[in-house]
Design a protein that fits this description.
By secondary structure, the chain is an alpha/beta fold. It contains 9 helices and 6 strands. The chain binds 2-acetamido-2-deoxy-beta-D-glucopyranose (NAG) (2 copies). GO terms for molecular function: phosphatidylcholine lysophospholipase activity.
Length: 230
């Protein structure tokens, strides 16, 4: 009896302590949104999570309807990185509102457009899709914070227009973001293009290998930390 009493007291104390911690720093829900570069397996997210832990930034909760895939260590890896998906396709299939309502993110970090470029969509078509997705994010949460990547370079075999298509999209993103920016729901443009070499940082001209994953974790880290601290 005495032992049980002590165990109960300990449990209660632990529960109170952990609820105090929770009250002090509610986890910020972050949705990584994209295609296979983000989700299949997207191990740059594992490296990014580890960098956050190393920096003692632990009030995060990565969310999404897809589970983490193996990246060699346990990490918080839920995501919306859907292999093969286009921004224009996510819009025409009306998929984002359902993902948002299931997971309620505070922050969306989006690396999208690769498959659109591959399928010959123009920057205008892709940015129109981004605008629809942005509206859906803000419908889900008025103060949504959005990070939009200037995507990594791509040069797969049999895609003559891919390399230049990514350059054209990335060039158009900052102007789009500035025009859509609001005080309530700020947009941060994240440059994941500069310093990434599709010949050295991917094995297939598209998907980051281990050096590419390291570069992607690095491109997101500072902008994400700034958003988390704002
Ligand atoms: C959006 O506005 C914020 C300030 O509210 C600013 O820090 C940020 O750079 C702006 N983003 C763009 C893409 O202009
Ligand atoms: C990444 O892929 C490229 C091309 O296949 C290769 O040359 C390079 O050694 C790889 N780097 C790492 C760190 O895996």
């Amino acid at each position: 009896m005495a032992k049980m009493g002590r165990a109960t007291w300990l449990l209660t104390a632990l529960a109170v302590a952990s609820s105090m911690v929770a009250a002090q720093s509610p986890a910020i829900k972050i949705m990584p949104l994209g295609d296979s570069i983000t989700g299949s397996p997207g191990c740059w997210r594992a490296l990014l999570w580890r960098k956050l832990q190393d920096a003692k930034i632990t009030n995060t909760d990565f969310v999404g309807t897809l589970p983490a895939q193996g990246c060699g260590f346990t990490y918080d890896g839920e995501n919306e990185g859907h292999g093969g998906f286009l921004a224009t396709g996510i819009v025409s299939n009306k998929q984002l509102p359902g993902w948002l309502s299931k997971t309620n993110p505070d922050v969306v970090m989006m690396h999208l457009g690769t498959n659109d470029v591959w399928n010959n969509k123009s920057p205008d078509e892709i940015l129109a899709a981004f605008s629809t997705l942005l509206g859906q994010m803000r419908d889900s949460k008025k103060t949504m914070k959005i990070l939009v990547a200037q995507i990594i370079p791509m040069n797969p075999p049999n895609c003559a227009q891919c390399a230049q298509g990514v350059v054209a999209l990335n060039k158009a993103i900052p102007g789009w973001a500035a025009a859509k920016n609001t005080t309530d729901s700020p947009i941060t443009v994240v440059d994941c293009w500069t310093g990434f070499d599709d010949a050295k940082d991917t094995n297939d001209g598209v998907h980051p290998n281990s050096s590419g994953n390291e570069k992607m974790a690095n491109c997101w880290f500072d902008p994400l930390v700034r958003v988390l601290k704002s």
